[in-house]
Amino acid sequence: MCERYHPGLVKALAEIPYAERERPGGPGIALFREYGGVGLLVPAEYGGHGAGPLDAVRVQRALGALSPSLAAAVTMHHFTVAMLFALAADGGRLSPAQLDLLHRVVPDQLLLASGWAEGRTQQNILAPSVTARPVPGGYRLSGAKKPCSLASSMNLLTASISVPGEDGAPELALALVPATSEGLSVHPFWGNDLLAAAESDEVRLEDVFVPEELVVRTSAEDPGRLDDLQTAGFIWFEMLVSAGYAGAAASLVELVLERDRGAAAERAALAVACEAGFALLEGAARAVADGEEGEAAVAGVLVARYALQDSLARTTDQALELLGGMDFIRSSDHVRQAASARPLAFHPPGRGAAAEPLLAYFGGGALELS
């Protein structure tokens, strides 16, 4: 599936040693651009592939199998693209300047980073993390996003902000901030060897001016558009980030099968567990593709994500055990790959934060994630 959408990318990544793929400043993001990765979810009328949810999670699994860092990084681009193009889908909802940016994503291979809150386990990924001060012609933004994947390679930062509404009450808005903006800077932040190639550093905004035409706001005619945006973005984020980590585990399972490690029953049980976990995610993606939305879709992707999260821990542990002690002694690559599947637990919403909202939903109430 990855080869279908991005011919040559799998081969290019596989030819690079694993440690090189995963090092800070590794080549994965540049290769992703070179092989047209930015356009996976961009609609065809904007020059992209317009991939659906099922194809997208399969492509992400392939990337995660080759480079967990790359899969984690580009999740932020893809879910941001999905949200922005959803706003443009019915026409007239974006300004000419905003539409111009969207038309440039594929031709210019623009990478969009997310200035939202995915690094904080107990926080809503779409909670505003940047303050906005109204000034003539636009807003002055201040704040920091840490970690912010794609920090060094991004062309555009999307940041949720709070702005005064028509009645003076705070209102959610979305700012599109060019990476070259004066006052925007990148600073070292990521200290772990795992996922080090995702460029998850600090992006700092110091009184950055963003013109009004690059701020997406609600309107009296369409008061729910950013609420819809948040829900759609959340669903895409959970599907894509889960798929990338699933790939890291699947690659280890594949090695066990290729090397005939352990008894046939052990190998089969391992493969079944691996495929069962991903099948849950595929099921959620199919439901979204078939039109499921709102709370039902959110609950579906969370169920799949948490079940997969448990499955990844079991399958990676068993895969390492079957690969054996000599594999462990000869190289740290597979241990690193197994550990790279674990950070799914750190993406929001954490299991604890989602427990009561899910219980309320399962009991017939509303699903209200804070």
UniProtKB/TrEMBL annotation:
Superkingdom assignment: Bacteria
Signal peptide: none
Gene3D superfamilies per UniProt: Acyl-CoA dehydrogenase/oxidase, N-terminal domain, Butyryl-CoA Dehydrogenase, subunit A, domain 2
Keywords carried by this UniProt record: FAD, Flavoprotein, Oxidoreductase
Family annotation (InterPro entries): Acyl-CoA_Oxase/DH_mid-dom_sf, AcylCoA_DH/ox_N, AcylCoA_DH/ox_N_sf, AcylCoA_DH/oxidase_NM_dom_sf
MF terms (GO), sorted A to Z: acyl-CoA dehydrogenase activity; flavin adenine dinucleotide binding
Acyl-CoA dehydrogenase/oxidase N-terminal domain: residues covered: 30-83
Pfam families: Acyl-CoA_dh_N
Protein's recorded name: Oxidoreductase
Organism encoding this protein: Streptomyces mashuensis
